[in-house]
Amino acid sequence: MKPTPTFAYADDREDDLHLFKMAFDRAGLTNPLVLLHGSQEVHAYLQGVEQFANRALYPLPSILFLDYKMPESNGIQLTRWVRARPQFKKVVILLFSGSGQQEDVETAYAAGVNAYIVKPQGMFRLSTVLQTVHSFWCDMASLPHSIDDRPKRRSTTESFSP
User: What is the pLDDT of residues 121-141, one digit of tens each?
Assistant: First the structure.
């Protein structure tokens, strides 16, 4: 049985976080969803520190939505930070932007996003996008079971048999 992928969405605007949550619910998605207020919470969440230390409550996301424009670090900078850490290389990063400018698209893909999505206006359109994203990444595509790619330490009691 496939594990249920965790979704996370980071945005510095409370209204956009609220809209995302409402659209997520309207889309009928039942995956765990973690809402992150800005880039500093993204860092804390992915590293499992501060309020995100309990991985049972805050598992690593399979799919991370990032807003392009955030004050401390934008979505491109966050993507580069995530991609520079081997333990997060399997996290799917979807960048939301208000701009569809080709230069922004090129920069985003060069940084390592898996998809660049022009932010849909309104809850109905956003819920449709979320249903489509869910359908593709959770039903059609095969995601890795473990997002954390750090080598697992073997127990000293393990033995090998030829």
Answer: 999 999 999 999 999 998 888
Q: What is the pTM of this model?
A: 0.87
Where do runs of H (alpha helix) occur along the chain? 14-26, 39-47, 75-83, 102-111, 123-134
The CATH number that domain 19-140 falls under is 3.40.50.2300
Tokens read off for 31: 């995956």
**Cα 143 from Cα 63, distance rounded (Å):** 10
pLDDT digits 0-9 by tens, 21-36: 999 999 999 999 999 9
Closest C-alpha to 52, from 60, 82, 63? 60
- Residue 70 in contact with residue 12, Cβ under 8 Å? yes
Q: 3-state DSSP call for residue 94?
A: strand
Domain range annotation of the chain: 19-140
In 3D space, the residue among 118, 108, 120, 29 whose CA is nearest the CA of residue 74 turns out to be 108
Q: Decide if 58 contacts 52 (C-beta within 8 A).
A: yes
- CA pair distance 38, 63, nearest whole angstrom: 16
